[in-house]
Design a protein that fits this description.
The chain has helices at 23-40, 69-76, 110-120, 141-145, 172-181, and strands at 6-10, 13-17, 46-50, 53-60, 63-67, 90-92, 95-96, 186-192, 198-205, 234-239, 244-249, 253-258, 261-264. The chain has 269 residues and is an alpha+beta fold.
Length: 269
């Protein structure tokens, strides 16, 4: 038996979606599309009508920007569109741009990002420094010169480098032996991170599983990495306060309380 998709009239065309999709998931997108409609009345964006729906265009410094609110809604529903997954549906001079949110958890709705872009670029003037780097092509030489200097690149992280902090640490052999003897115990640990700061954590050991490229999907309950953490004096644990996997440096432990043992050096904070 075939079921017709649900349909919702929006300011930018008809949005179709499966009846199985919860209404609570639809409502935020509809609110964002109504926000886009409101912004359209008070900004310099111009609607362009076509068979696929309504896109929004404007020209800045002789460059045409076009965004697609209805396709943003389709992306929020998890449907495949002509735009790359997780990217904002936006073209510059007819070419798709790589614009995406820096936030991952939670990731903002594409429809909200479209409305934000309308607001950012909707007036006669805008702040060049607020533009994503991939949109710098619309800037004049004067606007480019006004941008703040880029921060220096981060130094390449090299795992396993010896500490230069001068702190004293619990011998790694003792740390590993206690973790081996108490594989399921919740413990308290303080260790020096690779940036030189101390980290306190309540944790429980987790098993590292070597990646297997032959497996499709697989069990996501255990962490997977492309290298064995122990090679770099690291150990997988679960941070009990946030319920997420983390790495601890077993060669830089300043305090460890596990079972009935407490190991502590003079460098413990």
């Amino acid at each position: 038996m075939c079921f017709r998709p649900m349909q919702e009239n929006t300011p930018f065309g008809v949005l179709e979606y499966a009846a199985s999709i919860d209404r609570a998931r639809i409502e935020p997108m509809l609110r964002a599309l109504r926000w886009c409609e409101t912004l359209l009345t008070c900004t310099r964006w111009v609607p362009q009508y076509n068979a696929a729906g309504v896109s929004l265009q404007r020209t800045i410094n002789e460059h045409q920007i076009e965004i697609f609110p209805l396709e943003a809604a389709a992306m929020d529903l998890g449907y495949k569109t002509r735009f790359k997954k997780q990217h904002l549906p936006i073209n510059l001079d007819g070419v798709h741009l790589c614009v995406r949110s820096m936030n991952r958890h939670p990731r903002p709705l594409h429809t909200d990002m479209v409305a934000s872009m309308m607001l950012l670029l909707g007036g006669e003037r805008f702040e060049p420094a607020e533009l994503p780097k991939t949109l710098h092509g619309i800037l004049t030489p004067e606007q480019l010169a006004s941008l703040p200097p880029s921060p220096p690149p981060r130094q390449r992280y090299v795992p396993g480098q010896p500490s230069t902090s001068g702190r004293t640490f619990v011998p790694e052999t003792e740390v590993l032996e206690l973790l081996r003897l108490h594989p399921t115990s919740v413990f308290r640990i303080q260790f020096e991170k690779r940036d030189g700061t101390l980290r306190n954590m309540t944790a429980q050991c987790a098993n590292w599983e070597a990646p297997n490229d032959d497996e499709a999907g697989g069990d996501e309950s255990e962490p997977r990495m492309r290298y064995d953490p122990s090679t770099y004096n690291l150990r997988f644990v679960v941070d009990m306060n946030i319920g997420q996997y983390r790495l601890v440096a077993t060669d830089r432990v300043t305090e460890l309380a596990i079972g009935e043992r407490v190991l502590r050096t003079a460098s413990a904070g």
